[in-house]
TrEMBL record:
Catalysis performed (reactions): S-adenosyl 3-(methylsulfanyl)propylamine + putrescine = S-methyl-5'-thioadenosine + spermidine + H(+)
Designated name of the protein: Polyamine aminopropyltransferase
UniProt feature coiled coil, ranges: none
Binding locations of S-methyl-5'-thioadenosine: 31, 106, 137-138, 162
All copies of domain PABS, residue ranges: 2-237
InterPro entries: PABS, SAM-dependent_MTases_sf, Spermi_synthase, Spermidine_synt_N, Spermidine_synt_N_sf
High-level lineage: Bacteria, Bacillati, Bacillota, Clostridia, Eubacteriales
Family from the record: Belongs to the spermidine/spermine synthase family.
Length: 284
């Protein structure tokens, strides 16, 4: 008998991966967590039936969410990561000796516990002494923070369930307040391709643009995410990722990456016309 994991990416589109072995299934206070092993993608896990991380393509997402802001400002020392329970974002951040502190706020401890067991590839740096784990709602955590972080990375689920609050105007306003005067905010920005996802990214972009003087969107190809075409938001109080990137300085660090390089950095901000149109058209 064949076993397949099937994800409903829209009402009329499904994406399937042949499963060699189901590894774990559980339900936390916040969401359902499943882990599978597959020949093509290695281990992968889903939250409420949506793929979060696969061993095969996680490097693309984590390279792009971390190295783009880091290469834009290599003086970043204090970082807040919201969500990111699989640990991949923290793993990439710990490659910079210059970073002194990483606060990671994940609402669901069970995600971290399950990932520690099945995803050593991404959780391997969660015990770095610079990393401080907080198991609480990122929306609440950030309310009391003012002028302390150089970089905030929002590595969240989609804008429903526990992740909903992380796409609100209130949250983005609190991120602005928690950032220093030259702070950068990067968030996973959904996909432009299918309508429901495109609406979410359009709304998020509009809200961020109202607050931050620099507001750009960049893209990557992530095969296991809906449509494979994924966006990230880059917002900042001063730095522009296209003019402030110090290519020579970043390359001289000798950080070996499998996806990111400084040419991709610049190229990833070149968007297709239909995406430019969605972003320019403010929606509701
Ligand atoms: N790379 C993934 C993607 O875009 O599909 C995101 C992965 S990461 C596992 C997302 C994490 O955000 C989940 O573990 C979830 O529990 C966490 N999360 C959702 N809402 C949150 C909130 N309000 N505060 C903190 N963490 C949250």
């Amino acid at each position: 008998m064949e076993l397949w994991y099937t994800e409903e990416q829209t009402d009329s589109v499904r994406f399937s991966i042949k499963v060699d072995k189901p590894l774990y299934t559980g339900k936390s206070e916040f969401q359902r967590i499943d882990v599978f092993h597959s020949k093509e993608f290695g281990n992968f896990f889903t939250l409420d039936g949506l793929i979060m991380v696969t061993e095969k393509d996680e490097f693309i997402y984590h390279d792009m969410i971390v190295h783009v802001p880091m290469a834009t400002n290599l003086k970043i020392k204090n970082v807040l990561v919201i969500g990111a329970g699989d640990g991949g974002t923290v793993r990439e951040l710990t490659r910079y000796d210059s970073i002194e502190n990483i606060d990671m706020v994940e609402i669901d401890k069970m995600v971290v516990d399950v990932c520690r067991e099945y995803f050593p590839q991404t959780t391997c740096k969660l015990d770095d002494p610079r990393v401080h784990l907080y198991f609480e709602d990122g929306l609440r955590f950030i309310r009391s923070k003012e002028n302390i972080y150089d970089l905030i990375i929002v590595d969240s689920t989609d804008p429903f369930g526990p992740g909903e609050g992380l796409f609100t105007k209130e949250f983005y306003g609190n991120c602005y307040k928690a950032l220093k005067e030259d702070g950068i905010l990067v968030n996973q920005h959904e996909s432009p391709y299918y309508e429901e996802y495109a609406k979410s990214m359009q709304k998020a972009h509009k809200r961020i643009k109202e607050l931050f003087p620099v507001c750009r969107v960049y893209q990557a190809h992530i095969p296991s995410y809906p449509s494979g075409h994924w966006l990230f938001g880059f917002a900042s109080k001063t730095y522009d990722p296209l003019t402030d990137i110090d290519e020579q300085a970043w390359n001289s660090l000798g950080i070996k990456t499998k996806y990111y390089n400084t040419d991709i950095h610049k190229g990833s901000f070149a968007l297709p016309n239909y995406v430019i149109d969605i972003l320019a058209n403010e929606g509701d």
